[in-house]
Amino acid sequence: MKKKTSKPAKIAASPALIEDLVAASRILANEGVLDGYGHISARSDQRPDHFIMSRSRAPALVTAADLMQLNPESEPLPGDERKGFIERYIHGEIYRTRPDVMAVVHSHSPSVIPFGVTRTKLRPVSHMGGFLWSGAPVWDIRKVREENDLLVRDRPLGKALAGALGSASCVLMRGHGVTVVGSSIQEAVFRAIYTEMNARVQLQSTLLEGQSSSSATTKRAPSMRQTAARWSGRGSCGARRSNS
Amino acid sequence: MKKKTSKPAKIAASPALIEDLVAASRILANEGVLDGYGHISARSDQRPDHFIMSRSRAPALVTAADLMQLNPESEPLPGDERKGFIERYIHGEIYRTRPDVMAVVHSHSPSVIPFGVTRTKLRPVSHMGGFLWSGAPVWDIRKVREENDLLVRDRPLGKALAGALGSASCVLMRGHGVTVVGSSIQEAVFRAIYTEMNARVQLQSTLLEGQSSSSATTKRAPSMRQTAARWSGRGSCGARRSNS
Amino acid sequence: MKKKTSKPAKIAASPALIEDLVAASRILANEGVLDGYGHISARSDQRPDHFIMSRSRAPALVTAADLMQLNPESEPLPGDERKGFIERYIHGEIYRTRPDVMAVVHSHSPSVIPFGVTRTKLRPVSHMGGFLWSGAPVWDIRKVREENDLLVRDRPLGKALAGALGSASCVLMRGHGVTVVGSSIQEAVFRAIYTEMNARVQLQSTLLEGQSSSSATTKRAPSMRQTAARWSGRGSCGARRSNS
Amino acid sequence: MKKKTSKPAKIAASPALIEDLVAASRILANEGVLDGYGHISARSDQRPDHFIMSRSRAPALVTAADLMQLNPESEPLPGDERKGFIERYIHGEIYRTRPDVMAVVHSHSPSVIPFGVTRTKLRPVSHMGGFLWSGAPVWDIRKVREENDLLVRDRPLGKALAGALGSASCVLMRGHGVTVVGSSIQEAVFRAIYTEMNARVQLQSTLLEGQSSSSATTKRAPSMRQTAARWSGRGSCGARRSNS
């Protein structure tokens, strides 16, 4: 018997956004970008100062019923008693600072973490990582708050992270992970997957001779309208949209 | 409700070719050679100046209904309004230049990309990669067109790539991926899989001492008549031929 | 026809502990921490000087019916004729020495083994590995018994290993594997998974420049109450608890 | 409609051996030791100068109906018109030379190949690889036959390989793969899996400092009676024996 938990009858999001967000969470888990933790959110398409995000749950298990509506302070609607992710302030403060951002992925993307604990810069080595030309700054929480557990637990920390992101597509978090943004759920999923892939390729390239410099790729990235459809064929996504 | 899209009633290809091509697309996705993007095509066995290739779709999801017939200019038949892959010109220009080529795979094969952004040459380290004795040239799109997004978007770029391929079995594309050819769908699948495997082994060999030189393997490669049958047992291929 | 093997009618453990322990074994197999060997145990929640552990069986196959109750000498109850794991003495001696430990995982965690055969110390490079601040000592069985097969086959060897663990969260075993402890099944699963992940990231970081020193992470680790629920969504766990 | 191919009504092997051999083929494919190629055989338990091996087929697809009985010359029984593996001479010549060998695995085990194209010796770094204390010689086909395609296509090449194996547990084949032997199907499966694992760990250890020397492990390896049962829980094995 499950414990009944109060939640609002409806969240301010279109059925398409809900379906895409659930699929995105499962796709990112399936691709190994999200592990048992990590999360993706989307700006509400009905109330743009709010955003939609799962309650605290394994990304591979997220369903539409798990989604919560969070206000500009990253807090749930009155009456929604479910436990949200502690790090939801990452999302809220980025949405506040970056009106162009429609979706945010925070992950422990495994191949990216080494670039957050060394001096080597993550940089595009493939056209799929072309968005990294925006830069991939490394944020060090210690510069903001000496006493910390590396988690972005409140608005001031979220604001500092958003500041470090600036106008880039992703920001690395020292000894923790990475946060990637996009102008759509599809683009955020695409970038999260190819940030991981680009990092892995860059790591491997260090084994070879004469690694090419910053001119490795052009600055124009392919357009990514169909990303979720691309990835939904890989693995057991419980919810997905038709891609015809 | 799906939007009805016009397509021709029939494409110029035998049922066997269609079945093999669909299985090949899924096999290559399953083996990690194709990610959400990338594509395989086959020269038509009924109209050899045309070739068969999926509409723009995730390789893991391709079905017979997604296949399109493309003419020598890499354009769809009149009345086929479906969106093809932008990079179909890779395929068309190779079929034009190389009458011996019956199938083409273009991928972002992850372990191969490092060899396209460094000076280290991809070379055969195992007999399964023996076809790499043909050479594995690296093509740099910038030499052809300074303003580019690394995609082969038109016939002139496709022609330049086909020129770089020459008589080899594969051509690396700097900061992008690789294109592999074969005298059959089976051989192209085999070569695409073992180009990836050979690259991974070569990368790992750099960690050891006294890596052997170009004499690593003999120049004769095993014959590969049953390749698709070999791989179809691995993973969830929706369409495959009996291999008895 | 299966051979009937005697076992006790009931073991001293709550249904919740049994369910969690079975799920944990399968989760750890699914995550690649346990291979065909390795094991997880839990201190009995009904008789704290005893512990619960599978009979000798592949971790991916463990069911509630495979669990055995072992006494403080790591021996089965009278009448239980099933074959236990040889290395159950690892568990028993740690429970004896460390009253705070409620669960123990012994594995051949693949990325951890290199740190047991070199001089490089495993150290936290991500907040998920923050528990490694407790240290990750390497135990060398040869210091205790010159004639050995690297297995902890009896109580004296188990006691020596427990001594090497001290108050840490994990102890590496030279040329063998690692043993990880936790204050709950959930925490032990979490730590086993992130010891592997942390080791992999640390290995990869050696390829980059200017690897950061021991200040890589803070000493506070995230709390891990929901670990099993987090991981149960990944893969084919035959037994799991609802996580609502 | 399948083409009817003649085969003998019965092969000289017990039901248990047949079941284990089929499971072993699928387990080794599932564990990534066998790719689309490679094979495992077992000495007949009814006619010890003969051995049992699949017809030429993907290891992941092998069923009991695919098994062939091969004579001391590695040739099929009269009337069996099915196509065998070209490299069956590896197996036949080892069975002839090594009466203690009951099963043989030939694979392109990916992490092992680097040790066949460099001067670094594969050596035990974990107790699971303790059998490598027998040595892991590298066989170079060129020393026997200058004109070759790296395949062991006939009895003389098989005999030369068996000579290089000597009394060891495995023999590497330069630029090709590895052949592993065991005193049972279970032991051969165990050794094939841990040769791959040991190679991977040794490769990774090169990234760390002060890799320990040949004293990495003791010379006694664990006994492996239950190996197939251990692995059968991992992945989709179509045929397996109960392990109770």
How much β-strand is present in the residues of chain A? 5-15%
Largest sheet of chain A: 7 strands, mixed
- What oligomeric state do the depicted chains represent? homotetramer
Task: Give me the count of strands of chain A.
Answer: 7
- Helix content range of chain A: 25-40%
How many separate helices of chain A?
A: 5
CATH domain class name of chain A: Alpha Beta
CATH topology of chain A: L-fuculose-1-phosphate Aldolase
**Overall 3D geometry of chain A?**
globular
Specify the CATH architecture of chain A.
Answer: 3-Layer(aba) Sandwich
Mean pLDDT of chain A: 87
- For the biggest β-sheet of chain A, the strand order reads 3-2-1-4-7-6-5
End-to-end distance of chain A, in Å?
40 Å
Largest interface comes to:
A-B, 35 and 35 residues
Q: Spans of chain A of 5+ residues with little confidence (pLDDT < 50)?
A: 213-228, 233-244
How many discrete domains of chain A?
A: 1
CATH level-4 homologous superfamily of chain A: Class II aldolase/adducin N-terminal domain
Rg of chain A, nearest Å: 18 Å
Written overview of the protein:
The first copy, chain A, is α+β, with helices and mostly antiparallel strands and 244 residues long. The first copy, chain A, has a single domain, classed as 3-Layer(aba) Sandwich (L-fuculose-1-phosphate Aldolase). Helix content of chain A is 26%, strand content 12%. Chain A is built from 5 helices and 7 strands; from the N terminus they run H-E-E-E-H-E-E-H-E-E-H-H. The first copy, chain A, has a 7-stranded mixed sheet, sandwiched between helices. Chain A is globular. The C terminus of chain A is likely disordered. Chains in contact: A-B, A-C, B-D, C-D. At the C-D interface, loops of C face helix 4 and helix 5 of D.
